[in-house]
Amino acid sequence: MSQPSGPGLAEERTGFAWRRTAVSVAVGALLCLKILPPLLGPAGWALAVLGFCWSADLARIGRRRHVEARASTRPGASVPLGGGGNVVRTAAVTCAVGVTATVAAVVIAMRGGGV
Fold it and tell me: Where is the chain membrane-spanning (predicted)?
């Protein structure tokens, strides 16, 4: 079975991937908002707010990358080269969120709080 291909489809898939990631992070932040404040207090609220900020940043980056990709498919257009910093920032934030979530899980477990 062959997959459809054509001008602009790769850019659409990339845009959808960024949107899916932003929505997934927002859903995770909503879960943090429901679960963490009773267990961690203000730190739980802070983690949820950081998750929402990260989600908004991912949506912004995704929208910009989608617009740049669409512009680069026009005849005579050049491919934009400025996206490397976003990848590094997103990877750093992902690592920070992972470490923070691990520390929060350990704190919750040591307090004896079950979810």
Answer: 21-37
**Domain region containing 74:** 9-111
- What predicted TM-score, i.e. pTM, was given to this entire model? 0.62
The residue with greater pLDDT, 79 or 43, is: 43
Q: How confident is the model at residue 27 (pLDDT cuts 50, 70, 90)?
A: very high
Phi and psi for 23 in degrees, rounded to 5?
-65, -40
Helix orientation angle between 84-111 and 9-40, rounded to the nearest 10 degrees: 30
Specify if 34 maps to a domain.
Answer: yes
Q: Are 58 and 93 in contact (CB under 8 A)?
A: no
Based on the structure, what is the number of domains in the chain? Answer: 1
Q: Quote the pLDDT of residue 77.
A: 58
Whether the CB-CB separation of 48 and 32 falls below 8 Å is answered with: yes
